[in-house]
Amino acid sequence: MGRDDSRILIDATLIMLAIVVPTILLAFWMAWRYRASNTRAEYLPYWSYSGRIEAVVWSIPILTILFIGGVIWIGSYRLDPFRPLESKTPPLEVQVVSLDWKWLFIYPRQGVATVNRLVVPAGTPVHFSITSASVFNTFFVPRLGSMIYAMPGMVSQLNLQADRPAELWGQSAMFSGDGFSDMQFQVTSVPPDRFAAWAQGARGAGPVLDQAAYAQLARQSQRVAPITFGTVDPNLFAAISTQKIAPAPGPADKQGGREIVAGGRR
Amino acid sequence: MFGKLSWSAIPFDQPIPLITSIILVLVIAGTLGLVTWKRWWPYLWNEWITSVDHKKIGIMYVLLGVVMLIRGFADAIMMRTQQAVAINAPGYLEPEHYDQIFSAHGTIMIFFAAMPLVIGFMNFVTPLQLGVRDVAFPTMNLVSFWLTASGALLVNVSLFVGEFARTGWLPYPPLSETAYSPGVGVDYYLWAVQISGIGTLMTGINFVTTVLKMRCPGMSYLRMPMFCWTTLASSLIIVAVFPILTATLAMLSLDRFFGWHFFTAGAGGNPMMFMNLIWAWGHPEVYILVLPAFGIFSEVFSTFSGKPLFGYRSMVAATLFICIVSMMTWLHHFFTMGSGPAVNTAFGISTSVIAVGTGVKIYNWIFTMYGGRVRMSVPMLWSLGFIFTFVIGGMTGVLLAVPPADFLVHNSMFLVAHFHNVIVGGVVFALFAGLDYWFPKAFGFRLHEGWGKASFWFAFFGFWITFAPLYILGLEGMTRRLQHVNIAEWRPLLLISLAGVGILIVGALCQVIMLVVSIVQRDRLRDDSGDPWDGRSLEWATASPPPFFNFAILPNVEGEEAYWGIKVKAIESQRLSEEPDYRDIEMPVNSPVGFYTAVFASVTGFALIWQIWWLAGLGLAAAFAGFVVFAWRDVHEFHVPADEVAKVERARRAQREALLERIAAEESVPA
Amino acid sequence: MTDHPLPAAVETVRRVREDPHRLGHRGHGHGPVEGAGHGMTGPARKRIIVGYGFWIFLLSDIVLFSCFFAAFAVQRGATAGGPGISQLVEMPRVGWETAALLLSSYTCGLSFAATNARNLLWTQIFLLITGLLGLVFVGLELFEFIDLASRGITPQVSGFLSAFFGLVGLHGLHVTLAGLWLLTMMAQLQVKGFRPEVVHRLICFNLFWHALDIVWIGIFTIVYLMGAVA
To answer: Around B69, how many Cα atoms within 13 Å sit in the side-chain half-sphere?
Structure first.
């Protein structure tokens, strides 16, 4: 998926470079050839129209854009992030919640959840359902492919796949407030059997993610070290995305003005 | 009594804004002191502050734009420095401060630097090129300027009273709602932009009417210089989209002040509606800026190639095409919302289609040089630099319009590099070209060539060294607006980018030196002819600087390139046209209403930001009173007696005679 | 050799006389209209410029309204558990509001007929009636809002109610401001008489008042009628 996205990026660049480079060279050549000091170049003080050149001048960009338009059309459908990936393995379901300023990943089938750490099996498609508990964010793992918005009250979807085991990183790609710069998370892709073992081991161990624990988690915090929850309220994601649970509270100090500026130094 | 305002609003604990504001206050106080000491107030008041002369308003706009450009550039320097040092380190700017800086940078550069500069050129040039004496609504023009100025004032006040928005230059809710941004920062943004936006809307109305209804005899549509066409297109977009900005910001204000739910997270609020509305304004806004820039380049290419613009009608068609299609592309700013392939395809294609219009323009400029005598003066250097920079910026723009590619680089440094590529390469280069090109018309002497060229080369290379690394960083996944960076491999590129900023600073210094040197050497650089570049449109038919009534007799246009026709005829016959009968001229009287508007708009805006309701009420009442007093005046115009007109015009004719003789002597044109 | 004048030269002279600026045509079917801003006779007259500029402003004002219409359309269902549109509409009151506003448009037109006849008394009388009808409209709307608020229906309840009050309130605000303008114009007319600039402002006021009427028809249909049906 990521590979196909970059392929389109490169293809489109090449298509346009084929036009852009000659255009730039032509511009510089014209300016050089017809410089005022070059008396050998003819001077055509009234020449300002040529039907043939006009036709060419309109058709070059039109043809290029027709071509790019085709790329856009085909690419948009084929690489739609909502579209499931073709694979024999059934996809892993992951629910993603962006919080101020950390990421919550819920594995509904496995019954576990993590904060700021995403573990996925390599070679298995992953289907993400993404929402936000507070403000807009963008879920983005650069090495895996597409990004998509995390929006309050809405669920967006994304299908990605890590082809081989690796340690990667993900981030929010939409500014979401003072703690935004540290909204990074680890992405660990492991062989499927190790993933199953990890999920098995995490289940039941560690803290419980119920509504009370979530309320605590939803408060603003920065640089949160990865947490693994062994038990998860199965309705939590639905409650967040439909806003049955009220949106996250935002800054504690609602006074406004300059005084809250000291917030980041805490 | 004072709403939310208290002493804690002053940043005593923050050295950077505190010192900046102290210096600013000292500079302002010093300037005011100097003006008072030199007894310049009557001159300033009569000749500038209350002047309804479109040329002076244009110059004031440009001055405002340049001052704010420096402010925005200072923000940019701080941002690049912060990112270069804050790699696995906190840097020297805390997030709260850094977030304000990048928000202020974007807001200032678009609303208070680029817009005033572009509108300044529209003001100064358009009526001259149309061969008329003023814009359609001269007093409203002055009010527009002062509204923009009071918006700029509010943004700068936020530096030392309270804070500025920490949400980015477009305050996306829910982040900008009171729940997540309880401070006054977003309110500063809202009212500063709202007030200046109303000024811009009035400018748009003014210039649509001016171009469509105020042209000299014989100036049919297809004889207007390209710059007038782009002014028209840009003003049409302003009229069509600035109300959207007004409405959107009003809705956000209602949310913030009274707890309404247009865009809140929860209670039926719809944040995506904000994104749709704001970009329905925001994308056309880019073309409001860039179309007049295209107009400037058209004038420059044609003048400095000594030829008419190639494919003039094509250019007009392309301009209007861009004008219309620019309003159909807004969704490409949020492909990653996930609106589905059909919608993304439609907007991806509509976005790329704009490149057809710009592509045609690029080729037409290139063919304008064909068969020309290209003079490599400073404006021409900026224009050639523009072609290189803008073509690449346009290419990366089309890449971003391909949804699957956008899913990789949306909101990244690639995007940052792209829009600086088009806005700096397109708009700012044009403004510098225009500054050099029309400066002699405004002030009667040319700018120093050597320093102008130096400034171009530093700016050109500085630009590319700053922004080329950002393209690569974006492709590597670096997102924008990071206060610190957690990936050490990006350090070299960030340092190169910082070095580029250093070169840009040198370029900016060259501009300042150019200005100083030119003023010192103004006698040597004096433009006696009124036509320093061998121009082709009517502004060059006037003296430099033009008299306040522009034209003693409105010119009679008999073909395209009005002034070129007059000039060729004069050179052929070796004499000027017959001296006409001079008549009295009616000109609009000066008016303090603009300045008055600025005062009450600033006071009302400030009161609304801090929720000092009684002061806001007082400000609005004063506004209404001012409106009534203004409406009550009896004298709208004053007569310039024919004798005075004749006197001024004969001086100009003497200059032209001298020019003719010089040409005859140099070229020995056969009689 | 011949006494005949040269036909081609005569034709040329005739054409140049008819088309002094070499535009290649003589206007649109008629001779150049002085002061219309058509490109052959120089800038338009003040009256045309003022009216034209005001039309452009009206277009931009319509765009402003259209944003609030769009917000209303988007948030029509976003009631967040609060009341929906059908619980808001009280048809008789809206009917009277509409009648008052439409009638005021008619009297506004009559006032301008009197203006054209330069009849001060009748202009003032019709302007006064227009203003009173406007007052009735704003008053009824205010009662509606107070009534709704007393039932706990305020814009703070839901996105839908924000959009409803935003759209209807924006129109009400426009009518109120137009009323202030109308009072100012009446005073000015009384003091200054039919000076050209006063007449220009009356033209603009008329345009504005009618435009607000047209917008109200949109609100009446889209908000109230469709709401009553819903």
So the answer is: 23
CB under 8 Å to B93, separation ≥6 — which residues? Answer: B16, B78, B82, B86, B101, B483
pLDDT value at residue B576: 84
Read off the pLDDT of residues B294-334 as tens digits, 9 standing for 90 and up.
999 999 999 999 999 999 999 999 999 999 999 999 999 99
- The CA distance from A216 to the nearest CA of chain B, in Å, is 17
CB contact at 8 A, B252 and C162 = no
Taking CB atoms and an 8 Å cutoff, what residues of chain C touch B628?
184
Q: Do A24 and B480 touch (CB under 8 A)?
A: no
Distance CA B397, CA B390 (A): 10
Q: Which residues contact residue B431 at a Cβ distance below 8 angstroms, ignoring those fewer than 6 apart?
A: B65, B114, B117, B118, B121, B293, B296
Q: Residue B456: CB partners within 8 Å, gap ≥ 6?
A: B378, B381, B382, B385, B432, B507
pLDDT of residue B579: 84
pLDDT at position B671: 44
Query: Which residues are registered as beta bridge partners of A148?
Result: A139
User: What confidence tens digit (pLDDT) does each residue in C61-92 have?
Assistant: 999 999 999 999 999 999 888 899 988 888 99
Q: Residue A148: what are its φ and ψ, rounded to 5°?
A: -155, 150
Element (H, E) at B413: helix B413-422
pLDDT tens-digit map of C131-177: 999 999 999 999 999 999 999 999 999 999 999 999 999 999 999 99
Instruction: State residue B51 phi and psi, 5-degree precision.
Output: -75, 135
Determine contact, residues B481/B102, Cβ cutoff 8 Å. Answer: yes
The vertex-A109 CA angle with A105 and A115, nearest 5°, equals 15
Residue C104 CA to its chain's centroid (Å):
13
**Interface pTM, i.e. ipTM:** 0.93
User: Residue B580 — φ and ψ, nearest 5°?
Assistant: -80, 175
How far apart are the C-alpha atoms of C156 and B264, rounded to whole Å?
A: 11
Q: What is the pLDDT of residue C26?
A: 56
Taking the CB of residue B592, how many other CB atoms lie within 10 A of it? 15
Q: Is C80 part of the contact surface with chain B (CB cutoff 8 Å)?
A: yes
CB-CB contact of B654 with B648 (8 Å): no
| Banded model confidence at residue A2, pLDDT cuts 50, 70, 90 | low
**Average of per-residue pLDDT across C19-46:** 68
End-to-end CA, chain C: 91
- Top residue of C17, C23, C34, C60 to mutate, by most chain B CBs within 10 Å, is C60
Inter-chain residue contact C158 with B268, CB threshold 8 Å: yes
Could you tell me the sign of the dihedral formed by the alpha carbons of B587, B591, B595, B597, in that order?
negative
Query: What does the block give as tokens for B398?
Result: 């089309």
From A150, A157, A155, A154, select the one nearest A173 (Cα to Cα): A150
- Under DSSP, the state recorded for B49 is I
Q: Which residues, 6+ apart, have CB-to-CB distance to A86 below 8 Å?
A: none
The burial of A7, by beta-carbon neighbours within 10 Å (0-12 exposed, 13-18 middle, 19 or more buried), is given as middle
Specify the DSSP element, H or E, that contains A258: none
C28: which 2 tokens? Answer: 């649109």
Residue A258 reports pLDDT greater than 50 = no
pLDDT at res. C7: 66
Q: CA triplet A7, A9, A10: central angle to 5 degrees?
A: 65
Asked whether the predicted pLDDT for residue C105 surpasses 70, the reply is: yes
Which one of the listed residues B56, B71, B410, B448 is annotated catalytic? B71
Sequence-ordered alpha helix ranges (H) in chain C: 7-18, 46-75, 91-116, 120-150, 159-192, 196-219, 226-229
C residues 91-150 closer than 8 Å to B (CB): none
Contacts of B526 (CB under 8 A, 6+ apart): B444, B445
